Amino acid sequence: MFANTLTLTIDGTGRTLKRNNQDNFGSVYFFEDATEIITMKIRHDADNQAGYPHKRHNVTLERRIFATPTSVEKYFTASVTLRHRDASAPADLLATWIGLNTLVLTLDDGLVLGEN
What we know:
By secondary structure, this protein is α+β, with helices and mostly antiparallel strands. The protein has one helix at 90-112, and strands spanning 5-10, 13-23, 26-32, 36-49, 52-65, 74-85. A 6-stranded antiparallel beta sheet has the order 1-2-3-4-5-6, with helices on one face. The longest helix has 23 residues, at 90-112. The radius of gyration is 17 Å and the shape is globular. 3% of the residues are buried.
C-alpha cells in the first residue's frame, strides 16, 4: 500500500495529497488550497482480453484551478493505464512503462500542442 500522503510537484511547487479513501481495489488522494483542488485516483482491476486474463492498473489525476476576478477556471486531467497478462512479469510491464514515460517526457510541448 502507498503512503497516506504523496507529494505531487507542479512547476517546482510541491502539493501534499492526502489519502481520503482506500478500499481493496485502490485509493483516492486529495489536495485543496485557496487556488486549486487536485484529486488522484489509483485503481486496480482484472479483466479478460481475447481470452487471456489481464491485470489493469489506472492512475487518474484531475486538477481544477479556481477562477479569479481576472481569469477563468482551468481544468486539467492526466491518466495512465498499465495492463499485462497474468502470465507476464510485472517487472517487464514496469520496464515498458519507464521506457514510454521517458519518451513522452522528451516529446514535451509538442504532445500537448497536438503534434503527431
